[in-house]
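Budget justification aside, the reviewers requested a transparent look at the raw inputs and outputs of the sequence design task funded under Objective 1. We therefore reproduce one unedited record. The lines immediately below are the structure tokens for a 301-residue chain.
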């Protein structure tokens, strides 16, 4: 049994870094230590815990079963200590210089960030943001490692260590050139199917519109596929093409471009847009404040 009174807690910081990096040289550089110091710390941990913890293999350093068992609770304990010592539970947005890293889609960036930045300029001018692309797979590790503060998007089943906060419900609409000859506000299903469509894939193999059409043995004419939402509204201008977009994004573009939006003539329910964070950050006052502001500013839209 390990006696915590005689345990050097600095070893846990090195263990956490080794579990993240799986490389002694990178850990030494990250913690401003020498490689022998990191190797010595690992050897001390091996002796104290009577386990190899990390084993060199042809694929690099691989953790043992005990190391994997210890990783999450020790990381949570370290972050709790850091949060407590840094006074993050006493967060003042008006004077804070915190920089949030958010992963989201181009849809959310366009529909949400202008309004959020306007609020921040007035209420929290020192706060800054880095916006990153939301990958197809939920970036669980990046959230747990602190590389991301939160993600905004559509998510399936999540592991217990990731916290989901309901954010928005979004509807789909059809966007087209303002003078499109076939599209009216009471667009019918038959007319919708006959249109030339742009499909924004967003990294998906099949979207909700086409899944509904498949289920009902229907098909639309997709003449172009693009991975991003931001360019799609520009492509319909001066053409007879149409594109299905989330309503908030479409409304933003309708204020800027000669396009118009009409209801989607399919009984597709609204979809959820959620905020996800690491459960390890539940007591992070700055992050919880940002989530509260996001929900307050946008839930009513």
């Amino acid at each position: 049994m390990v006696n915590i009174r005689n345990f050097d807690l600095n070893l846990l910081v090195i263990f956490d870094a080794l579990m993240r990096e799986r490389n002694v040289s990178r850990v030494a550089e990250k913690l401003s230590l020498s490689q022998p110091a990191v190797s010595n710390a690992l050897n001390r941990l091996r002796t104290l815990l009577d386990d190899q913890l990390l084993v060199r293999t042809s694929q690099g350093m691989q953790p043992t079963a005990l190391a994997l068992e210890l990783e999450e609770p020790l990381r949570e304990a370290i972050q709790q200590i850091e949060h407590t010592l840094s006074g993050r539970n006493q967060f003042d947005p008006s004077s804070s210089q915190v920089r949030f890293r958010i992963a989201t889609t181009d849809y959310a960036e366009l529909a949400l960030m202008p309004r959020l930045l306007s609020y921040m300029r007035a209420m929290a001018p020192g706060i800054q943001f880095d916006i990153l692309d939301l990958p197809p797979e939920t970036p669980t590790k990046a959230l747990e490692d602190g590389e991301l503060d939160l993600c905004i998007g559509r998510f399936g089943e999540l592991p217990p260590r990731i916290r989901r906060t309901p954010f928005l419900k979004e509807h789909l609409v059809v966007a087209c050139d303002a003078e499109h000859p076939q599209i009216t506000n009471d667009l019918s299903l038959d007319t919708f199917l006959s249109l030339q469509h742009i499909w924004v894939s967003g990294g998906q193999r099949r979207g909700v519109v086409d899944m509904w059409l498949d289920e009902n043995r229907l098909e639309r004419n997709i003449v172009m596929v693009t991975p991003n939402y931001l360019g799609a509204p520009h492509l319909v201008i001066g053409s007879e093409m149409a594109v299905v977009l989330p309503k908030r994004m479409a409304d933003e573009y309708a204020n800027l471009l000669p396009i118009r939006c009409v209801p989607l003539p399919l009984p597709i329910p609204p979809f959820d847009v959620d905020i996800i964070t690491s459960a390890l950050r539940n007591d992070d006052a700055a992050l919880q404040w940002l989530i509260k502001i996001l929900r307050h500013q946008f839930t009513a839209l």
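The domain at 4-85 is CATH 1.10.10.10 (Arc Repressor Mutant, subunit A). The first strand starts at residue 54 and ends at 57. Computational costs for records of this kind are itemized in the attached budget.
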